Fold these 4 entries.
Entry 1:
Amino acid sequence: MSRVAEAPRLPPAYRLVARESVGSTNDEARDLARQGAEDGTLVWAREQSAGRGRQGREWSSPPGNLYMSLVLRPECPPREAVQLAFVAALGAAGMLGLHVPPLMPLRFKWPNDILLGPRKVAGILIEAEGQGETLDFMILGLGVNLVSHPAEARIPATDLKTDTGETVTPEEALEGFARHFMIWTNRWLDGGFAPIREAWLAHAAGLGERIEVRLPNETLAGTFADLDATGALLLDTERGRRTIAAGDVHLPGM
Ligand code: BTN
């Protein structure tokens, strides 16, 4: 691993660890966290050779896009800490919103995807370590397709340049995300999950519509009714309401 020459400027709450190339920034951040890295340590790489998505999927990671992972040590139980994925989605959308024209919709797809129009432009991968109700640390990984996207993906993908014509550098994207994530984290710390849930729901893809949710052993169909107070998806099925803490959402037409 070699260091990059010019580092982005981040608010003082972050400690930047900049790399040219790594396997996965989530792995680098996890290793640093195990060695005691403090809350706010942010690993950023120009490319990844083993970028990971949710459920062990590959995350295509050529140079030009944003790959970063943040060490977080929130003072709350794991079930609340996972709300930081929604906080991060709002932070990423805040950054993307600086570059996306007003009529081009940025939406959130439960639990951790960010869509530009009907296609995925960014994803979040949260990984945690701890014992039972005690969280040791959490790694919040974010990948944003700035200038390229994989042609073949489970969910159709896009990138910011393809859809807007604008070339945003990873440095600009990182600075924008860091600023917006801090603003939304402060809202979460001050007001709990309620303001986060409200902001996320205002841009939720498929809300009030028929969706499919794929679980490890079954696929459920129903209406995406709401998020509960913890961030679980509430699905109204023919057999009643289901509360879903983890799963893959499939939206009609995607
Ligand atoms: C998903 O949508 O499935 C989550 C994608 C998360 C990708 C980011 S890129 C930076 C960090 N390092 C990884 O290996 N994964 C996350």
Note: The chain is about 25% helix and 30% strand.
Entry 2:
Amino acid sequence: MQHRKRIPPAEAIQYLDSLLQDLHGQPESVTAANACGRVLAKSIVSDVSIPAFRRSMMDGFAVQAEDTSSADESSACTLRIVGTSMPGNGWTGNLQSGEAVRVMTGAPVPEAADAVVPFELTSTLPAGVRISSPIAAGKNVSEIGEDIRSGQQLLDAGRSLRPQDIGLLSATGCSEITVIRRPRIRLIITGSELLPAGTRPHGHRVADSNGPMLEALVSRDGGTSLFHGITPDDPDSIRELLEEGLRDKADVLLVSGGSSAGDEDFAPDLIAQLGELPVHGISMRPGAPAGIGRIGNCPVFLLPGNPVACLFAYDMFAARAVRQLGGRPQQWPYRPIESTLLKPLHSAIGRLDYARVRMSEEGIVPIAISGGSVLSSTTIADGFVLIPPETDRISAGDTARMWLYGG
Ligand code: AMP
Ligand code: MG
């Protein structure tokens, strides 16, 4: 297949968004213990109040505040101790004026009591409990619904659940939580020269770095990778893997390597035969041989074999699909900062460039633009700067936006 004219990245994204328009994350139910980091499919409204009963916030004596109103050092009040209220095992009597009930933190406060005097502010005598300063009504009593009111919306749909969210939901009696199913991303890693990841490279062969890198990227974006090992540059094998991906009900297919127009590059024609490949050849560096198409309504991404190009093309296009299908915001999980560029960055009008850069005390230091095969340029970098298609340089001294790889 010959490259057509290279397509502007914005047009590639437009096509991608038209594909994604009809695709939505599917709900599934998980236990609270497995819900952390998952995306909530529906907003959650509490049907209980917490606390569900008037609860003591201190170890002390539940009293009627009025009884203590004139207490002071010279004329302390002494209240008769009529019972004890323990957490989960409240006192069932009827508190009267002049009486106190021992309560522990978390225990129900008797109905007629309206304050808890902490033990530290009391002394116990044979006749009862001595209190030498007044306590305000409501003190140390947590009222019903103070934390959560029944009918209150707790968490919004689309939220990525935090550990404390899991605690909150569990506290309201939620044990099954409806989240967006993780999208299933089939990885097809092609290259006759490839050795399985982790193999020591030898001869003229190279160990697969894209497979594990893509698995990590997919996992970062909330997807599940389906990866059954590398495949040689052989059209029948690649066709079989594309078809198998669809049979496996993959939500997205990612093809690494063989994406260009060389003798060994079969994937573009296969995708065009099985579906369509309207985006092939994109004005970006690295990553020009990238492509976007579909088979049925499953988006397919052609990612160049050169690892930096693979990373950039994934982040530019595939990440968008994975994140959206998993109910996540399309934005990158990279944090942007603005700072002064210390050396100029040159590009070409019409092309999007991915410049790996480092952060120094003084500003942003470019490392590399070209070199799509030099993966270490992305590991010594702290992040990257994009040089948009409409400009051909960012001058030294200009403010540039840098995206940080790390947090
Ligand atoms: P290709 O896109 O297949 O033309 O490959 C471009 C370059 O990337 C070649 O040098 C390949 O050996 C290399 N390459 C392809 N796939 C991988 C991979 N999975 N891991 C590391 N390098 C790769
Ligand atoms: Mg190849």
Note: Residues 344 and 395 are 4 Å apart (CA to CA).
Entry 3:
Amino acid sequence: MMRHLLSTADLSRDDALLILDTAEQLAQVSGRSIKKLPTLRGRTVVNLFFEDSTRTRISFEAAAKRLSADVINFSAKGSSVSKGESLKDTALTLQAMGADAVVIRHGASGAPHRLANWVDGSVVNAGDGTHEHPTQALLDAFTMRRRLGDLDGRRVTIVGDVLHSRVARSNVHLLHTLGAEVTLVAPPTLLPVAMGDWPCEVSYDFDAVLSKSDVVMMLRVQHERMNASYFPSAREYSRRYGLDPERLGRMPEEAIVMHPGPMNRGMEIAAEVADCARSTIVEQVTNGVTVRMAVLYLLLSGSEPAIGGNQ
Ligand code: NCD
């Protein structure tokens, strides 16, 4: 296992399967009344969040605590970062405090890569700008495997604001590595200009791919990253790219609906679709803890068994 988790593009098929299989083992613990394992006792995990987050921050904290690590939560607001301290000086401070792992979310694409050069511990990318969000893709793949079995040959359609989505990029690489066929659907204005090396298909027509999808993953329209108008109106966007009950009805019977959250209910996804039995949105959050446990465990103590031993 590698020292850092910065990008799903770095993961081999064996690495990815090891993380997913380890998460499957650790999921057994989540079903117990006492959910804690002693595996990372004495290790320190720092959550370093420069951008807002609900699910990812809480689930990394829960994952580290369930493995008995000491957790330090650092949010840029209220820290010396607001006094202008640089990422490098912040990193050196964490280093001086003996962090074994740093989980970082940052608005700048590439920030986790820089951090990895400055600290001795493991760095986990929890979302960097519009670049990658590897643990989200891993929890998505874990959720798909649980619902659909092996991902080889499965058709996954990812719909919406691909341009600003680190979730889409991480999923495209990981799903390709796991043998799935990915189609991205978006208006031309919400697709990156250079996608030559992305291992996926692209379509502008949601309705044309609906009936051929095993998974439909909706992306949030990321208003906070938009500095211009990318589509005529919210209504027009929903009409062409929103998942409503009528479109849900045209998906294959076994197909599932996913969304990484947070959702714009009524825009990219109708409330009744988000809450229906075929939606895995809440499951994705639960699975996020398990998958992040697997990642922290493999990075920090890969040689000891995940479960068993002196429990
Ligand atoms: C995503 C993110 O922050 O990249 N959310 C998440 O981590 N669950 C997607 C988003 O913000 O739309």
Note: The mean pLDDT is 93.
Entry 4:
Amino acid sequence: MTQPAALPPGSTIGMLGAGQLGRMTALAAARLGYRVHVFAPDAADSPCAQVCAASTVAGWDDRAALAAFAAAVDVVTLEWENIPVPTVAFLDERVPVRPGAGVLAVTQDRVAEKSFANRLGIGTAPWRAATGADDVARAMAEIGPRCILKSNRLGYDGKGQAVLGPDSDPAAAWAAVGGVESIVEGFVDFACEVSVIVARRPDGAMRPFPVVENRHKNGILDRTTAPAGVPPATAAEAQRVACALAEALGVEGLLAVEMFVTPGGGVLVNEMAPRPHNSGHWTMDACATCQFEQLVRAVCNLPLGSVDIIAPAEMENLIGDDVLRWPEILAESGARLHLYGKTEARPGRKMGHVNRLRPAHR
Ligand code: AMP
């Protein structure tokens, strides 16, 4: 099989999705001399379009717009894993899409994702698929009443989830997640949460970033610490698991894998996303290559960059009104502020982040 050639600087990368992950990818791409063309229904004045060479505002099912977009770009990547699979398949007939439709089909669906991991012998929380309140009741009986009910699709940042206990009513929980196909997961009493982002090129070359530790507030990532304070064997296992999943899925681009560390030091996969990830934002200031540049390198089939840590670091998300603290963050020595160009600071909305190298409390 002939290997795809490297796509040289000056080429145009198509970006599906117009949020902050696309924005930071476009900035990294521009630094390497690439142009980015964003396509999304909500692209107009989006965080991504603000920094792109071109933008298309059209629906995911607008075939004429998709065909024109495919003709205008040299490769396509994405910053949101819920792009409809038929959209990606349509584009992929015209221009390489990295990662491809097969990867999205697995990572868009929690049951498919967990089945995939388990088939590889990779551990997850115990789980059952649920298509009704009866399934929820049966799952609670089988895996214990302390569970989390999550909608299979389109859940993120703790949305579409209900925590269940011995007194929970399965029917009420089913209604609370919207009465859609769901998964019931046993509650994991984890020691900590970690993640690994791995880059994989079309020719199969792979490089994982260091393991980081994540703390959540109200179901949303609050802080990431790099590197994670876990034993070396746990870190090595987390990287092994992320690479095994990226390889088996045939990811071209990035795969972010969120995991629970058990009290015994093992890891259980929670979620994966085939795109840049919030827990990788620390790499912008504290790693030899940032995750966004690594994505550009991977999808353009360039040499993958070094993942050496420059300094231990902490990333703090700025959610909603946190962004109003920008003047004090700018006045803080060594703090590196990244804002996403969003005008409205709604509660729960990711507005920016700040990276601190060698944070004082460590
Ligand atoms: P998710 O949307 O699956 O990433 O879940 C958001 C957050 O909820 C995770 O980062 C955990 O903090 C928590 N969580 C999710 N699933 C479980 C579980 N099975 N056991 C314990 N905590 C969980």
Note: The longest strand covers residues 192-200.
